[in-house]
């Protein structure tokens, strides 16, 4: 449960006192970082294999810390989740994405944007209300948004989360289950959540073209998802052999360094203007 996870979290953190001090001070700084514009949103294109072009991008946060340099989301997102900074951070990302979509709309066929939503937030009424207010104020159609539900923190109240996701679906937002295969309760989520899409975690995808067991797991996950009426995205595609394996396996979309690294907005605009071959 949540309390136990928190215990594990802090025990691990405490193995290194320096680390814990650094983390505590980082969290104190995160609020200021938002205000100071140190939190940036990068975008990684996702390629549709059927259409042979990117049809969406994933928003990924980066923290440009004035003294520590670049701090990656793998370090500060779990901390933000533990310390209740994840709601303001996510709202900041959503606002940024709505602004940025306006910048790339009209440059070519519409590109949807996927936003990572910590599963924990879905059962927070204040967060969901704030999201709805942002969407109401924005001229961007909700059909251009995908919410990727991430599981790094436990879902505190699954019933509330399901209700929130149903509401997002009603509003026109697509729902994707992130990091499929890595969580403890992925099959439960698959059964309960109103999903449009499933993202197979990079740890399964990366070597699927070389490793027989990974290949079997990826292929059967794609078939399972399709049987459930879901689209499948494979993340962490780093080379052409992997892409061809996924194409043969019937995967719908791919994301990874082979297509593009996560890009700042200006580089994304250039990327959009340059056709990719797949
Ligand atoms: P994720 O949602 O699984 O995102 C994919 C991660 O894999 C990103 O790491 C991306 O840069 C990386 N990646 C993409 N393609 C490749 C590849 O071909 N090879 C390899 N080795 N890596 C690849 P990143 O940007 O460091 O983000 C890490 C995690 O932080 C994300 O994992 C996501 O769970 C979380 N995160 C990022 N932004 C947000 C956010 O705004 N909100 C929340 N709640 N979580 C976020
Ligand atoms: Ca994601
Ligand atoms: Ca992942
Ligand atoms: Ca993730």
Automatic annotation (TrEMBL):
What range(s) does the EAL domain occupy? Answer: 23-276
Keyword presence, Membrane: yes
Q: Which UniProt keywords apply?
A: Membrane, Transmembrane, Transmembrane helix
- The reply on keyword Metal-binding is no
Q: Under which name does UniProt file this protein?
A: EAL domain-containing protein
- The stretch of the full-length protein covered here is 487 to 764 of 766
């Amino acid at each position: 449960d949540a309390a136990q996870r928190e215990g594990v979290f802090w025990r691990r953190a405490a193995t290194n006192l320096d680390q814990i001090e650094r983390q505590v001070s980082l969290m104190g700084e995160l609020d200021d970082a938002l205000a100071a514009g140190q939190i940036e949103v990068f975008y990684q294109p996702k390629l549709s294999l059927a259409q042979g072009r990117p049809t969406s991008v994933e928003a990924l946060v980066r923290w440009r810390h004035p003294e520590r340099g670049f701090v990656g989301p793998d370090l500060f997102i779990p901390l933000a989740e533990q310390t209740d900074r994840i709601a303001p951070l996510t709202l900041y990302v959503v606002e940024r994405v709505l602004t940025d979509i306006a910048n790339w709309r009209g440059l070519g066929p519409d590109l949807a944007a996927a936003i990572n939503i910590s599963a924990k937030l879905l059962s927070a009424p204040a967060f969901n209300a704030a999201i709805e207010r942002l969407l109401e104020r924005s001229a961007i159609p909700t059909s251009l948004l995908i919410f990727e539900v991430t599981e790094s923190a436990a879902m505190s109240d699954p019933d509330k989360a399901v209700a929130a996701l149903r509401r997002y679906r009603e509003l026109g937002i697509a729902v994707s289950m992130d990091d499929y295969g890595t969580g403890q309760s992925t099959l439960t989520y698959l059964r309960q959540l109103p999903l449009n899409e499933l993202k197979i975690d990079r740890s399964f995808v990366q070597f699927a073209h070389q490793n027989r067991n990974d290949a079997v797991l990826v292929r059967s996950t794609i078939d399972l998802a399709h049987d459930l009426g879901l689209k499948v995205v494979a993340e962490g595609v780093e080379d052409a052999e992997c892409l061809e394996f996924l194409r043969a396996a019937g995967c719908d979309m791919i994301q990874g360094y082979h297509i593009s690294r996560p890009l700042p907005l200006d580089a994304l605009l250039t990327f959009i203007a340059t056709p990719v071959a797949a």
